[in-house]
Amino acid sequence: MSTTTGQVIRCKAAVAWEAGKPLVIEEVEVAPPQKMEVRIKILFTSLCHTDVYFWEAKGQNPVFPRILGHEAGGVVESVGEGVTDLQPGDHVLPVFTGECKECAHCKSEESNMCDLLRINTDRGVMLHDQKSRFSINGKPIFHFVGTSTFSEYTVVHVGCLAKINPLAPLDKVCVLSCGISTGLGATLNVAKPKKGSSVAVFGLGAVGLAAAEGARISGASRIIGVDLNANRFELAKKFGVTEFVNPKDYKKPVQEVIAEMTNGGVDRSVECTGHIDAMISAFECVHDGWGVAVLVGVPHKDAVFKTNPMNLLNERTLKGTFFGNYKPRSDIPSVVEKYMNKELEVEKFITHEVPFSEINKAFDLMLKGEGLRCIIRMDA
């Protein structure tokens, strides 16, 4: 039994004290896990655009001081009351959404939107007692999406932890706990392109390239990447993208360009930008009769999707997805196995690595639009 079980752990965490200001490495106190909670030692974490979005806090409720971070890999240190399917030493990926296994969504084969543990970006406390497990000199520091992985130790609800193969390298598979699985699952689980089909991917950031990777794994013969940044096109070839379209190069709407390229439209499209115009284009560029468009990107809260209803009546399908339709506990372990079996390539998503003490460098890289995923090593 761990000597720290039941004790408060003092460790380093990167604290966001206020919106848009550099994170500060502080010594924090991490309380023991309570009912249905697990305390984990984070070994590797990475930066996702969502962290930057809530750190900037331009369009959300500012919740500070806060420990951000939600893409990570770690090892269970101790478990709270009622936790039976995890034990100290287990390797886990914390996930920003969860799976209680008891609600209507969890019992449905079609949904992964757990009633209890669905993402809540405003909540800065644990569900059990509405309190934070983090503090500095007795002052609470708020949690972020139930994970807060920018800390050497964190406390997470058991339903938000995927137990994975202990042989899987955590410095690689940690990126599967958010963005990569979101894009990959949007293609594999929702768009479901057939072998030899055509797929358009809108937005060639990490999520979009993961969607392209899903199309590559599915055996799509044409994968058309759509992005306003021409610098992304060369890198995208590594993810199976065969052709590129920059909407800025054309006077007509991009959906018309794609329809002309593909004799009436692509078989499937996946939208990963969250821009409403791209969403509409992604839908209108699929072929009538069988085309399916999948929306992944999160739009502005006031955005409105407008299209002629005939586009639907002509047998095009519009779908949405959340976290690639993966149930965190049930499905993410099998995504890790895809990597272990060499079906899925993860290394190519990882373009930078920094020690924990230089975590702000990861923010700088993302703000400049450089690279895809930056791994943050907690032991350095």
TrEMBL record:
<feature type="domain" description="Alcohol dehydrogenase-like N-terminal">
    <location>
        <begin position="35"/>
        <end position="164"/>
    </location>
</feature>
<dbReference type="InterPro" id="IPR002328">
    <property type="entry name" value="ADH_Zn_CS"/>
</dbReference>
<dbReference type="InterPro" id="IPR011032">
    <property type="entry name" value="GroES-like_sf"/>
</dbReference>
<keyword id="KW-0963">Cytoplasm</keyword>
<dbReference type="GO" id="GO:0051903">
    <property type="term" value="F:S-(hydroxymethyl)glutathione dehydrogenase [NAD(P)+] activity"/>
</dbReference>
<dbReference type="GO" id="GO:0004022">
    <property type="term" value="F:alcohol dehydrogenase (NAD+) activity"/>
</dbReference>
<keyword id="KW-0560">Oxidoreductase</keyword>
<dbReference type="InterPro" id="IPR036291">
    <property type="entry name" value="NAD(P)-bd_dom_sf"/>
</dbReference>
<dbReference type="InterPro" id="IPR013149">
    <property type="entry name" value="ADH-like_C"/>
</dbReference>
<comment type="similarity">
    <text>Belongs to the zinc-containing alcohol dehydrogenase family.</text>
</comment>
<dbReference type="GO" id="GO:0005829">
    <property type="term" value="C:cytosol"/>
</dbReference>
<dbReference type="InterPro" id="IPR013154">
    <property type="entry name" value="ADH-like_N"/>
</dbReference>
<keyword id="KW-0862">Zinc</keyword>
<keyword id="KW-0479">Metal-binding</keyword>
<dbReference type="GO" id="GO:0008270">
    <property type="term" value="F:zinc ion binding"/>
</dbReference>
<protein>
    <recommendedName>
        <fullName>alcohol dehydrogenase</fullName>
        <ecNumber>1.1.1.1</ecNumber>
    </recommendedName>
</protein>
<dbReference type="GO" id="GO:0046294">
    <property type="term" value="P:formaldehyde catabolic process"/>
</dbReference>
<dbReference type="Pfam" id="PF08240">
    <property type="entry name" value="ADH_N"/>
</dbReference>
<dbReference type="Pfam" id="PF00107">
    <property type="entry name" value="ADH_zinc_N"/>
</dbReference>
<feature type="domain" description="Alcohol dehydrogenase-like C-terminal">
    <location>
        <begin position="206"/>
        <end position="337"/>
    </location>
</feature>
<keyword id="KW-0520">NAD</keyword>
